[in-house]
Known about the structure:
- The complex is a heterodimer of chains A (115) and B (115).
- With 115 residues, chain A is an all-beta fold.
- Helices cover 0% and strands 53% of the residues of chain A.
- Chain A is built from no helices and twelve strands.
- Chain A is globular and about 45 Å long.
- Chain B is globular.
- Chain B is built from no helices and eleven strands.
- In chain B, the strands form two sheets. In chain B, strands 2, 4, 5, 6, 9, 10 and 11 form a seven-stranded mixed beta sheet that branches.
- By secondary structure, chain B is mainly β.
- The A-B interface holds A 4, 9, 33, 35, 37, 42-45, 47, 50, 52, 91, 93, 95-97, 99-108 and B 31, 33, 35, 40-45, 48-50, 56, 58, 88, 90, 92, 94, 98-101, 103-106, 108-109, 111.
Amino acid sequence: xxxxxxxxxxMFVQEKEAVTLDCTYDTSDPSYGLFWYKQPSSGEMIFxxxxxxxxxxxxxxxxxxxxxxxxxxxxxxxxxxxxxxxxAMYFCAILNSNSGxxxxxxxxxxxLVTP
Amino acid sequence: DVKxxxxxxxxxxxTGEKVFLECVQDMDHENMFWYRQDPGLGLRLIYxxxxxxxxxxxxxPEGYSVSREKKERFSLILESASTNQTSMYLCASSSRLAGxxxxxxxxxxxxxxxx
Lengths: 115, 115
């Protein structure tokens, strides 16, 4: 079975600072994909970034980057130059190849960016 | 602009009522999913479908059923609503080859309260 663990229920960061949100995973699949989603208070799920297990380089999308350490089974999200609009819930997820490519989500991390 | 829509943002029902949650996507996606989101638990997969008239149980299917008569529409049915089904329900869709990093697109969610 696949599992995602997010150990930080809540995080604070000051505006313009960088922040790392932790994610560890467990899977027996030789090939897998990891996603990060953002959920603002409005409720919609916004895709941020994807990392494939065989990708040679860590994924980056604008201010978002993924610190992927395969041997440690971690896929931490790094947000650089935090903005007030980054305040939201952040979910790490892994593709579940046994469920039609559904996503197995972690419990999420609530990020609050302060002025 | 690609879109997943859900029939209601907020819904209040009484215990024992039959409840229909509708989801429509306009991206011609094969895969569709229903998740339930509860505080501290993240998102959990209820049912998924990878083709018209096909459906598979997810992690928490008890008390729910689904229907997919057309490719673009995936309905979640609560046969006899109970108070423990009070939750946020999120529909999502993805292309059949989503295993290679294609994101899942989410609807805005339906917040269901069962009294």
